[in-house]
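Sanity check record (used in CI):
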Amino acid sequence: MATAAFSARVLISMGIALFLAFSFQLQSPMSSVTTVMIVANPAVGALVSKSIWRMIGTVIGAVISVALMAAFVQSPILYIMALSVTVGLACMAATFLRLFRAYAAVLTGYTIVIIAAPAFGDPDGVFLSALSRLSAVVVGIVTTAAVFMVTSPRRSDPLLDQISTMFRDTVRYVLSRHDTGGAAMTDAAFHAQRAGLLAGIGRLSDAVEYAATDNYDISVRHREIRAGLARLSGIVAAYHPHAVIASGPAHASASPQDHPPADGLIADLMRALLQTLEATPLAEGCAGACLRIAQTREALLERAENTPSPRQLLFLDDARDLLSRLEHALRDLAHRGGNDRSLRLRPFMEWPTALRNGARGALTTLLAGLTWYVLHWTAGPMMMLYVVAASSLLSTAPSASRASGLLAGGTALGVPAGLLCHLFVLPRIDGYPLLWLSLGLFLLPGIWLQFNPRLGIGAFGYSVFSTIMLQINNPIHYNDISLMNEWIAILMGCCMLVLSFRVILPPNHRLDGARLVASLSRSVQRLALGRASFAGQWIVWENLQLQKVARLAMRLSFCAPAPVANHYVDAALAAISLGRLVERLHRLSDAADTPAPERRQLEEALAAFRNLTRDPLATAHALRDICARIGAGQALTSLPPRQMEAVACMEQAERIIVDIPTFLDRNGPIQWSDDYPRAREFFAVAQSDGAAP
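Expected output for FUSC family protein:
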């Protein structure tokens, strides 16, 4: 039903935009239809955001197009080279930017060619071509926005309900890890549940950012909400086999007396939270839920003061920290916090991928431009138009190489569809209503499948590029030779696209994964040595690392067996937990009331991370020695609370490092070259105790 409603609104927008373009006597009326196909989105906020950034990209592209034409009007080769560099930079920017901001970069490269194409034969007309292009884009954007805003209710209630549901799902997830009476979950089910929750939180965070564009209630608090969702991601990610709180009684090294003593206490809290928040909005149930969390945290502290077992102390310390994070997340989501209104979560910029996508876009544009120049092909501008637009669009995809085949295939399907349209439909049209219905009929498959997880990029290519393959003007002039010429140019552009993205510059998913692993280890090291900059907001650092983990999981899914990928993801999440422990040590060290001897011990512990990426076990031994000196001759429970917390943090950090030394080591198996004889050890299944390979 939702897909049918979306398709109907797109067809209405397309019809009105095309009618207005014909009425205004625009030079390229189908450009308004192309704009509708690109900016249409079921979420009104996403549509508005997409439209704004598309307009920005179009204006920038128009300015650059006029400048390039003016600078190289007498030098075609230099023009093609300058265009290739510009498109490469646009592809890099599209890789870096998040959400629909990337469309500003996409449209910059796309607009340069679409404006310059009519002016190749008459450079003096490039300015008028730019104005015509801008006019068509404005018509498409305004029409689509008007139709969707009139036909779509804009209420914050459904989104707030989704946020409440996600919080309860996170509470259920925590409950499942501490419910001793529940059925044991297999490793595959655990990894699937965790990955599903993290992906759902990510999608909800994007939806909040979209809604903030056109919904005032969300816009005034979207940073707090995104901070709360980021905290939920951190809570979900905290459960991995290397965490004391997650290993429970089944941990291989745990003796019966070391069993976590408070699983039931945490489980009871989670059940109480679910009961309180099941029928009550977060804003109303926040106060009572936070009070219950605080009471449980105090109960855990009392147990810690009477617990002789080191492992139990570690569990209780980790549990108290987790409950504190859950309380902060609840306050942020219920608009009770206020401390995160200035929070700015930073996107992770993956430079190697951006550089590769930039090189692919530049190479594809250069190949198309030189082919056009050498062959003097009249359809060369159409080929360049396609490869530039497609290269820019692929740069926004998580895996451009895999998406290139689908995008090229979807575009190629537009050729037989266009042939059928020109042979059997367009010659029989005698009015605008029939033209509208005919275009809707041929574009409907692409519109309908545009948001399909598997076929979406191909359907998008079909619906967008079919509009530029249909030579519909006012009036229509039928020229079969010109039409076939442009279709052949599009098909050749599809071949060049796949050639550049999958053959000449193919991806190396293992190398990309190795870079992400090294980046995670270096980030923990820089955090310990005081070189990380996140303005004192821990959630900024954690969210940045979680973005790396998401990309690592995607890269490894392409090149490693599922067990190996899961173990590396577990190790990556353990590295984030290690960073959390480092941040707590920093906080204890920076406290004004910390005695000088304790501060020196904490600074020594943090300095031990200097060897983390060279010799992780040396860092672990150093932490162990510091703990031994602190607790020499006395029970841990006799230590002051601050010192007991410091020892617990160092003990947990030491355990994590010992569990994942090859992950933290910059010379670990994933870092080895494919030519190295033992490189295949990367694909070896990890040991059953959960250690990373």
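Residues 5 and 219 are 26 Å apart (CA to CA). If this sentence no longer matches the regenerated tokens, the check is flagged for review.
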